[in-house]
Amino acid sequence: MTRSEGATAPASQTLSRGIRILEVLADAREPLTIDELAARLEVHRSVAYRLLRTLEDHGLVARDSTGRVQLGARIAALAAGVAHDLQAEALPELTAIANELGMTCFLAVLDRDECITLASVEPRHAVATVAQRPGARHSITVGAPSKAILSTLSPAEWPVEVDERLRAEIAECAQRGYATSHDEVIPTVQAISVPLRLRGGQRPAAIAVVHVSSPADPAAIAARLARSAAAIGEALGG
After folding, report:
1. Phi/psi at 134 (5° precision)
2. What pLDDT is stored for residue 126 in this prediction?
């Protein structure tokens, strides 16, 4: 097959729908019924069922005692292979930050026009924390990690059009070294994030903390994040 033929070949609808099921389940905050999945995919229940059976055979989805569907354990094994070195270096730092600050700390990367959580650590002894699940994703135009990531790129490298308000926030992040957000991704949730500068060829990244109550000194939290970001970058040859 020539390159031009490969470029114009139709995508596999079945594969696309199977991937979409995994995305829907990753975004869901609880297991879903087959009917709910079929509705979100806009397909007949029998089509959703056949797709689920194949995914289930590969361990990518699982059903609970009520028959509801959730992501399977095999997903975690696959995810561990994504940016393995980055995750291995970041996890100890994320853990230290989470336990020191009592806030969930996570690593996010740019993926096309989205910001995706690659790894997340909740504090060990906190009474209540904000969950930030690995695999969670949102538009690169919202959230503190998104601003931190975009601050490391030139406007020509931004994957989407950016309005003047966001452009100003990105410029502020580039100047002071960190970004903040409030109610942009999850209602009532705030975030502080710093860029994670890595060597060439790796996707732009950021580390962040999420919390509900306002911190006394966002700049001090950002400084703590920046120390870990520098340590991770240095360990990876950044």
Report:
1. -55, 135
2. 66
